[in-house]
Give the backbone structure.
Amino acid sequence: MLLLTHDRTEPGFNLACEEYFFKHTDLELDIFWRNTPVVVIGRNQDANAETDMQYLREHNIGLIRRITGGGAVYHDLGNVCYTHIRGYNGPVDFKRFAGPMVSALRKLGLPAEFTGRNDILIGGKKVSGTAQTVWKGRLLHHGTLLVDANMEHLANVLRVNAEKYKGRGIASVAARVANIAAFMDGEPDVESFMESLIENWPHTGRYELTPHDVTEIEKLRREVYEKEKWVCAGSRR
C-alpha cells in the first residue's frame, strides 16, 4: 500500500485530494493530512442544523462538506486526519478498515479499541470517528484523530442533537471525547505524533503528489469544495 503525506492544510484542498484519488485514479493509497480550523459536515447534513454558524464566524472557523455520510466533526491542526482508498466491492465494514489505525495506536503504547459502529476509543473516551463510502468498486474510509485539538471549539461549534444526548448538551460532548495527548507523557507535539504514527504504518512505498495531481485537485477544490451550493446544500449542479 502506497503512503501519501503532504504539508497542505487547506480543508478544500484536502477533501478534494481524497476525492481525486478515490474517483479519478486507480491508486490504492493511505493519506495522512491536517486541516486548519474547520467543521466538516456529512454528505447529507443540513449545515445550519448541525453547526453554530455564528460561533464559526466569530472564531474564524471554516465550514466544508465531505462526500461520506455521518455526523459533523471539528478539525484543527491539533488533529491528524487519515484516509484509506482501496479497490473494494464488499459491504460497508468499519471495523475492518479501522483496524490498521487501532493497531498503529497500540504500537505507540495507547490502548486503543474499536467500538460501536465507527468510533475508536482510548480509556473509554472517543479519540476518533470514522466514515466511509463505496463508489464503482472503490472504497474511501477516513477519520480524524484528536491529538491536541481545541476542545472548547469542538464543544461549541456543533449543535447537539437534544434527543441523542437527552438534554445534556455540550457537557455531554465534552464528557465523551478526549485528546490522545491526555494519555501520553510529556508535552503534546502533533507533528511528532504524526511522524511516529507513520513510522508504525504498514506501506510498500511513498507516493508524491505530481504537478498533474495538484492541478486536478485544485480544479476540484474550486469547482466543488469552495462552492456555496455544495457546502450549504450538497448540490453539484
User: Anything to note?
Assistant: Residues 162-173 have pLDDT under 50 and may be disordered. The chain is about 35% helix and 25% strand. Residues 211-225 form the longest helix (15 residues). The longest strand covers residues 125-135.
